[in-house]
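Progress report, Aim 2. The chain analyzed during this reporting quarter is listed below.
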Amino acid sequence: MFWASGISRSQDQSPSTSGPNPNVGETVLVPKKTAPAPQPEAKKPEKINPSEVYTISTTTNLVNVDVMVVDGNGNPIPNLGKVNFKLSDDGVPQTITNFSTGEAPMTICMLIEFSNKWWGFLYLALEDSYEFVRVIEPKDWVAVVTFDMRPQILQDFTQNRYEVTQALDRLRLPGFSEINLYDALAFTIDRMKDTQGRKAILAVCTGYDTFSKLTYDQMLKIARTSDTAIYPLSILEFVTVRYGDSIDSLQARNALTTIAKYSGGQAYFPRFEGELPGIFQQIAAQLRMQYSLGFIPTNPSRDGKFHKLKIDLVDAQGNELKMVDQKGKKVKYRLVGREGYYAPKS
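Predicted structure tokens for the chain:
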């Protein structure tokens, strides 16, 4: 279960075998009390030879990192293997023990700025959110959260596109002019921490923050610690292209770019409506095609400090990987993933 929102899925929606579990509410009938079953006679404990007991040892030091490899246009590059990835932790090479790839459904929360600061921002946020619904596929899980002074869950994770649209249809009259972005991001990350699979937050927002309890630095630390990628989609660019940049707009753009980078996501700043379909298709493709790397750090210390990760692509000989397209032209690529992790503190 992602979070208890009290909203059930439609009756015609069949349950899925993967993804977040929906909240079914109190729908199970309570069985009538029956007489307790008779207790079996106690048996004498069997003698066990300690030399014949098998034990299983486990480790909790495994670090998982999701990495996207995209070309110069932001499109994912498939068909890479474990041998193509070179990973180091604070400059020390590590052995990749776990590796997986392939297409999978995306699990994404739409975090929508819903403030009465300016009606134009509200219109753009809704328009962008409705456009994103078009890229949702039947197996994808989507939730809807809005925020102004505080976040509000409108729709828990669902695979029903109609339920997502219904949640957006309820966004008509914002209550406050505050835009507490950092608090809303932290709220959403906290509720997605136990969600399995490839997950992300699509933050449809200006990048402004007016009244959050969290500071910008605290938000960056949370983004670094989390395994939930953040994809900010700015609704401010439509305004700046017409009226020009200001100090506030430049700061907002920088904040969204940095938050996305720290979380392993990517920020988008569309200036024209025609850019939206391509952006959303690209985000969906990235989330459905990722490379998952797992390693056990050679430094076992539990110091609670931040460890910087570096991932490179190499060929079978360990040299820098060079890729060419069908015409033999060199393909420029880049890796998108979180910059590191915080070690557990004992």
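DSSP finds seven helices and 13 strands in the chain. The helical segments are 119-133, 161-169, 181-192, 216-225, 237-243, 247-263, 276-288. These observations will guide the mutagenesis work planned for the next reporting period.
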